[in-house]
Amino acid sequence: MKKILITGAGGFVGTYLIKELQKSADFEIYGAVFSATSDVSSLLPEGHIIEGDLSNFSFASELVQKSAPDVVYHLAALSVVGTSEAKALSVMNTNTTISYNVLEAVRCFAPKARFIAIASANVYGAVTDTSKAIDESLPLRPLNPYAVSKVSQEMLATMYSLAYGLDVVIVRPFNHTGIGQTTDFVIPKLAEQFARIEKGEVEPVIEVGNLDTVRDFTDVRDMVQAYALAAQSGKSGQIYNLGSGTGHTIKEILDILQSLSPAKVEIKVKEELVRTADVPVLICDASKFNAITGWTAKTSLNQTVSDILNYYRGK
After folding, report:
1. DSSP codes of every residue in 211-259
2. 3-class secondary structure, 178
3. Domain boundaries in the chain?
4. Is this prediction's pTM over 0.70?
5. Is the distance from CB of 76 to CB of 34 less than 8 angstroms?
């Protein structure tokens, strides 16, 4: 039986990854949690849930020794892009420290483990040519502290691959969403507001920033399938983009929500809500990953948005 360690297992994506991996009886899964946003006690045995602070190297070392992993999925990070400017030093220092500690602990105590470094498409940042999808060769031009921390994570993972021979695969997921993601993220935030308007809890008005921002949204259930395939089939030392390949504006998201809702909602654009360091367009070219795995995102955006809206409706 192959032992799996998931850092950030109590977070939004971590819970979905646990469920995806549990489809196979061949995995024994350990989850590292810290201030978890969701309860994984129903998903993993008590002895396989390990709580602690990964910014402490002693804990990271104990974690790797206890789990003795064959595969590590490194998800743990401070991950809200919108607040990363206000908390710039905390985001950069914490995410870099966590990544270093986990990699170093793996080098010391599980050097044969496969390490899946979950980076972010935010590393591409200020894309100069927005007329085509982004492939892995594009230069990194980060626009916010979160993106800088993810570049640092990638560089650390690359260093451990080159200098110490660790089996590292880096993935750059584009935007992904689903039930359970917090309202710090755009689709859950808008869906929750629509649901509250339908219930008569708030006025039928939603204030937004830039309606023209383009993002490549993938359902989290599809994304964790890609993570599992990266561990199975990814080539050591390689970087893979993960996304649907289709861009959608924030206005399109609002249009989908309006089409699903009986409430008529007024949309107000507020200049103060526009992020000064936002990435204008991010659309994924995942052909490199598709070529080795056959993976494509299968869940439609309409279905994902509908699922999230129904969650906030209480259905």
Report:
1. TT-EE--EEHHHHHHHHHHHHHHPPTT-EEEES-S--EEHHHHHHHHHH
2. coil
3. 2-176+218-242, 180-215+247-282+299-313
4. yes
5. yes
Cβ within 8 Å of residue 198, ≥6 positions away: 261, 262, 263, 313
Reply yes or no on whether the pLDDT at 105 is more than 70.
Answer: yes
Which range, of 69-73, 77-81, 135-139, 263-267, averages the lowest pLDDT?
A: 77-81
180-215+247-282+299-313 CATH fold: UDP-galactose 4-epimerase; domain 1 (3.90.25)
Per-residue burial over 99-121, b if 16 or more Cβ lie within 10 Å, else e, is bbbbbbbbbebbeebbbbbbbbb
Q: d(Cα 206, Cα 188) in Å, to the nearest integer? A: 13
Contact assessment for residue 134 and residue 128, using Cβ atoms and an 8 Å cutoff: no
Range 2-176+218-242 classified under CATH 1.20.120.1760 = no
Two tokens, residue 131 = 């007329």
Between the CA of residue 163 and those of 17, 196, 237, what are the distances in Å?
Answer: 29, 53, 12
Residue 25 burial by CB count (10 A; 0-12/13-18/19+): exposed, middle or buried? exposed
Q: How far is 280 from 278, CA to CA, in rounded Å?
A: 6
DSSP assignment of 294-308:
-----S-HHHHHHHH
Asked if 102 and 144 count as a contact pair (C-beta separation under 8 A), the reply is no
Joined together, the tokens standing for residue 105 give 């602990």
